[in-house]
Amino acid sequence: YLMRSLDQGDTWQEISPDLSGADPEKLEGNIEFCLISTISESPLQAGVIWVGTDDGKVQVTRNHGGDWMDVTANLAQAGAPAEFYVSRVLASHHEPGRAYAVKTGFQRDDFRPFVFRTDDFGQTWTNVSGDLPEGIIYVIAEDHHNRDLLFVGRDFDVRVTIDGGLKWGSMQNNMPTNSVHDLLIHPR
Q1: Which of 35, 91, 149, 163 is within CB 3.0–4.6 Å of 143 for a Cys-Cys bond?
Q2: What are phi and psi of 107, to 5 degrees?
Q3: Is the pLDDT of residue 30 over 60?
């Protein structure tokens, strides 16, 4: 469940139903635990919130949690395995209907990259994994000014694309070889 506070955390209210698959077998402590793994609120349109779960669900609300749309099947139709862990969802800084979803299958020994973009609130998805090599992807970040400039944090490096995900290159810049679990682009 997604919770919201309107008074700086003094009180909380549920603004969603169970957004996971709620599979009883997974609730017993299998690979997934049916938990929300990532949340992203649109910086452009109030009330648009994206949620991803560890059991593969991607859902979006466009009215502050009043109604939720499960877009997992649409994402799977584009090539993202429905049950794979959602390591990140990211609402775009450029278009209200644009968001990114990153899935990972490392828990199943599948290290293929799964990075997808939607421009219509999850109705359709485009694979923007391009030529990313195999490996765990933990995070995606979008430049605030250039819609085609994206970064992904992986198990051993940061990758960058300047063409919206067709071709990716390594961004070493003296960074140590380590896991990158979060990225933040300064607004300036």
Answers
A1: 149
A2: -65, -15
A3: no
